Amino acid sequence: MRVRAITFDLDDTLWPIAPAMVNAEQRLDAWLRTHCPRSAVAYPIEAMRTLRDRVATDNPHLAHDFTAQRRLSLQTALLAHGYDEGHVEAAFSAFYAARNEVQCYADALPALQRLAARYPLAAITNGNADLDAIGLNHLFRFCLYASDFGAAKPAPEIFHAACARLGLPPEAVLHVGDDPELDVAGAHAAGMRCVWLNRGGALHAPAATPDLVVRDLAELAEVLDQFSAAA
């Protein structure tokens, strides 16, 4: 396998997203109780989660933009109770800071450092993680956000855009991600090589066949070293 660059998914590939989101929801709730108590009473954590889901359902044109969905949810929760846009932005800032307090998988940073020494790395994400705030930005050439691009994985176009920014044809770029549809099928449809990062050892196979299946990123780095040595 001749690889000239690697793109990565972020959430649930480099870190588990669920603990970060729970932390962010709790941080937001605490902030609201201090600064916007009327909204906090009306929208405790579960109610805020329901509101966020409803906003996503009612605004399919924002399906690729989680930041816009969150801000719209906060506008709905706060403006109706007498708070202003300044409160909305401050509430979002509290939420977003906590959302970026992720705990990387133990294998992620060593593998990224190892791979970045040999390949250009980029990220393609449907989420809104800030690699600079997380402390990984220096390892990546860029992060392509679905919110900025205007379409989300598994759309082939977002993968093609990443390849174009790398200056490489899709067949020269390897995509790594945990999601069988968004990452594996999406990259496959875009003509890229793809790695299914199957951390949980799921038995069901993706609809599109990945080029590699690994249990963690250390295994990926080792396999690519072996390919390189064989070549």
Briefly characterize the structure:
The protein has 231 residues and is of the alpha/beta class.
Helix content: 40-55%
Strand neighbour order, sheet with most strands: 3-2-1-4-5-6
Say which CATH homologous superfamily of the largest domain is assigned: HAD superfamily/HAD-like
CATH fold group of the largest domain: Rossmann fold
Helices and strands: which structural class?
A: alpha/beta
Parts with pLDDT < 50 across at least 5 consecutive residues: none
CATH architect. name of the largest domain: 3-Layer(aba) Sandwich
How much strand?
5-15%
Determine Rg (CA atoms, Å): 19 Å
The end-to-end span amounts to: 8 Å
What is the general shape? elongated
Main sheet: strands, sense, barrel: 6 strands, parallel
CATH class of the largest domain: Alpha Beta
Number of domains: 2
- According to DSSP, the number of beta strands is 6
How many helices does DSSP assign? 11
Structure description:
The structure is a single chain. With 231 residues, this protein is of the alpha/beta class. The protein has two domains: 5-15 and 103-230, HAD superfamily/HAD-like (Rossmann fold, 3-Layer(aba) Sandwich), CATH 3.40.50.1000; 17-99, Four Helix Bundle (Hemerythrin (Met), subunit A) (Up-down Bundle). Helices cover 52% and strands 11% of the residues. It has eleven helices and six strands. The chain has helices at 17-35, 37-42, 45-58, 66-79, 85-99, 108-116, 131-134, 146-149, 156-166, 180-189, 217-230; strands at residues 5-8, 121-125, 142-145, 173-177, 193-197, 212-214. A six-stranded parallel β-sheet has the order 3-2-1-4-5-6, with helices on both faces. Strand 2 (121-125), helix 7 (131-134) and strand 3 form a beta-alpha-beta unit. Helix 6 (108-116) runs parallel beside helix 11. The protein is elongated.
